[in-house]
Amino acid sequence: MTGTCPVYQRFDPLGLDYLADPYPTLAAVRSEAAAFYAPSVDMWVVTRHADIDAIFKDPATYSAAITQAPVFPLGRRAQEILAQGFGATPTMSNCDPPKHTRIRVHNVKAFSARRIAVLEPKVRLRPATLSPRSRRAAPTWSRL
C-alpha cells in the first residue's frame, strides 16, 4: 500500500495463487485497508463484509452497471463478432434500481424455498442421466 490513497500493486485476482486460495491475500490486504485500488484490474476492491453490504444498499452512490463488463479490453476478433449485432440485454446483476427491482421481484418468486424444494428431487436425480464419465463423478454431485 502507498500514500493516502491505498494502492495494492501486487493484488491480482486472476493470478493462479489467488484463484487457488484467495484467503491469505484477502486477510493481508484487509489488515492494511478496507478498500484499495488494484491496478491489475483497474478497479477498487472492498474487502470487509460491512462495507460491501453498505455498498449494495446504496445504488445512488455505487452503480452495478459495469458488473458484467470485461475486465480487460476485448480482442479485435471479439469486437468484430460483437459489432455484427450482438445485443446484450441488461440483467439483474448489472442494473441499478428501479430496473433491478423490477427484475428481482420475478426472481424472488421463481426461486422461493417452496419452488426449490419441489425441484430438489429432479436435481438430485440428474447425475444418473448423464454420461458414464459423469456418473463416475456422482460422489461429487451428492455433496450439492
Account of the 3D structure:
The chain is mainly α and 144 residues long. The protein has a domain at 1-57. It is 45% helix and 6% strand. The chain contains 8 helices and 2 strands, in the order H-H-E-E-H-H-H-H-H-H. Strands 1-2 form a two-stranded antiparallel ribbon. A hairpin with a 4-residue loop joins strand 1 and strand 2 (43-46). The two termini are 39 Å apart.
Question: Secondary-structure blueprint of this entry?
Answer:
Blueprint: H1 16-20, H2 23-32, E1 35-38, E2 43-46, H3 49-56, H4 76-83, H5 99-110, H6 113-125, H7 132-136, H8 138-141
Antiparallel strand pairs: 1-2
Structural class: mainly alpha
Poorly predicted segments: none
Helix content range of the residues, please?
40-55%
Distance between the termini: 39 Å
The strand order across the widest sheet is: 1-2
What sort of overall outline do the alpha carbons produce when their principal axes are compared? extended
Number of strand elements? 2
Reported for the largest beta sheet, the result is: 2 strands, antiparallel
Which sequence of SSEs, written as H and E, runs from N to C?
HHEEHHHHHH
Mean pLDDT over the residues: 85
β-strand amount = 5-15%
C-alpha-based Rg, rounded:
20 Å
- Number of helices in the DSSP assignment: 8
Produce a short descriptive summary.
With 144 residues, the protein is mostly helical. The chain has 8 helices and 2 strands; from the N terminus they run H-H-E-E-H-H-H-H-H-H. The longest helix is centred in the last third of the chain and has 13 residues, at 113-125.
